[in-house]
Specification:
single chain, alpha/beta, Alkaline Phosphatase, subunit A, Arylsulfatase, C-terminal domain, 4-stranded antiparallel β-sheet, 13 helices, 15 strands, about 35% helix
Length: about 450
């Protein structure tokens, strides 16, 4: 064969091989014009039980590994201590009592910018009754009751495997939210004590989710049910220190279960080369009280319930720890800013990376008579006719009410709330939530 013909054959062969390879390239071939955006939220994950936030148990190795190459916000605040009101605020950058039926959501905005929008959830209070799904091309809310994080992640990956870029993916996993049901070996890893462990059947029934579901669907005044529910949520004198240590270990085990699933999620992204062109935001709808104020639950205004993790990962793997105050309502404005797009709709949050954020308050609410505002070290809680003032830097467990000792801070925070409330009042919902009675039955308000 002549050299020219041989050369031509080789060229044609390479071209053909290239075409064949192109046909095999899946939907994940990077599109560098717009980054993919992933919002991964955990249910009831308090920040101080993660390694990256200083916890001494190995609950979160995969989250921690991502955080080492990310921006870590150490002072993040949820807008509500329950999923039903916190997630709608996160997705709209509006406070819980503001109307959201016609509000622009993250998904709706990104869809208008050409994004393929996907939502995969695992808890009832993240479904389309609470979070507007209009902006999602795919919204998978076909979860099993209190399904484990691995199931939710697998559902998300099966959808993502066919997704076109650029995409926005929101995944909300149930764990570490109760029931606290980690595998036995993970529980024992979190409970390295010499005393004989009291396993699940011997611990006062922590799986109150079934009771919540019952009350939600069939609200009743049956005294026995209400008494049981109240006992499980408020337990002064009923749970020993050993039992509480085991309960905390079970919660930590739930974090570890969720973290393992998150690690598998990251492994998939890496295998598909998606990390090269994807922004990942990790957060939680709220935290969890684990014995503080005699509460094992959330649905309250204490710091441990509102202090949530917030991690933002870029393909550049930049790492920085940021301590200024931020809120979950800041996530949406940050996405808009990162895409460098102008908008004309109202957002109550600010860009997380705004350099002028040091003079910034944090706020959460359930109703006009149940709210909290934090500025600097001081946090004011108002519940009906009672107010409490705490220095959460010195007293994160909020055990020492400073209301009488520090009237100046009380006055400052009260005036700050009045200014905020007056600014929002004309937009407020007149009936706090459509399901007011059901939320009251669950102790949310």
């Amino acid at each position: 064969m002549k050299p020219q013909k041989l050369y031509m054959c080789i060229v044609l062969l390479l071209i053909g091989l290239g075409l064949a390879l192109n046909l095999r390239i899946n939907h994940h071939e990077p599109n560098h014009s717009k980054p993919n955006i992933i919002l991964f939220t955990f249910d009831a994950l308090r920040a101080d039980h993660l390694g990256i936030y200083g916890y001494d148990k190995n609950t979160s190795p995969n989250i921690d590994d991502l955080a080492k190459n990310s921006y870590v916000f150490t002072n993040s605040f949820s807008q509500c201590g329950s999923t039903a009101c916190s997630l709608p605020s996160l997705h709209t950058s509006l406070f819980p009592l503001e109307p959201k039926s016609n509000a622009t959501t993250i998904a709706r905005f990104l869809k208008s910018q050409g994004y393929n929008t996907i939502g995969v959830i695992a808890v009832r209070f993240a479904n389309s009754t609470y979070v507007n799904k209009d902006g999602f091309d795919i919204y998978d809310e076909n979860f099993t009751f209190w399904e484990n994080s691995s199931v939710t992640v697998n559902r998300a990956l099966s959808i993502l495997d066919q997704a076109k870029q650029p995409f926005f993916l929101w995944v909300h996993v149930r764990q570490p939210h109760g029931p606290y049901n980690p595998r036995k070996e993970i529980f024992l890893e979190m409970y390295p004590h010499n005393d004989e462990p009291t396993f699940y059947s011997d611990i006062p029934n922590l799986d109150w989710s079934g009771l919540q579901e019952y009350l939600l669907e069939y609200y009743t005044n049956k005294g026995e049910i209400e008494e049981k529910y109240a006992t499980m949520r408020r337990f002064p004198g009923l749970i020993t220190p050993t039992m509480l240590a085991q309960i905390i270990a079970m919660y930590d085990g739930n974090i570890k279960e969720a973290d393992i699933s998150f690690g598998g999620f990251l492994k998939y992204l890496k295998s598909k080369r998606l990390l090269d062109n994807t922004i990942i935001i990790v957060s939680a709808d709220h935290g969890e009280s684990l014995g503080e104020h005699n509460i094992i639950d959330h649905n309250n205004l204490y710091y441990v319930t509102l202090h949530t993790p917030l991690i933002v990962h870029f393909p550049s793997n930049e790492h920085k720890v940021i301590g200024y105050p931020v809120m979950n309502v800041d996530i949406f404005p940050t996405i808009i800013s990162l895409l460098n797009i102008s908008t004309n709709f109202t957002l109550k949050g600010k860009n997380l990376f705004d350099s002028n954020r040091t003079d910034y308050f944090q706020y959460a609410e359930y109703s006009n008579e149940r709210w909290t505002i934090k500025y600097g070290a001081y946090k004011l809680i108002h519940k009906n006719n009672e107010s409490m003032l705490f220095n959460v830097e010195e007293d994160p467990a909020e055990q020492h009410n400073l209301l009488v000792l520090n009237p100046k801070q009380y006055s400052n925070l009260t005036n700050m709330f009045i200014g905020l409330h007056d600014n929002l009042s004309r937009d407020r919902e007149t009936t706090n939530f459509n399901i007011l009675a059901k939320l009251r039955a669950l102790g949310y308000i």
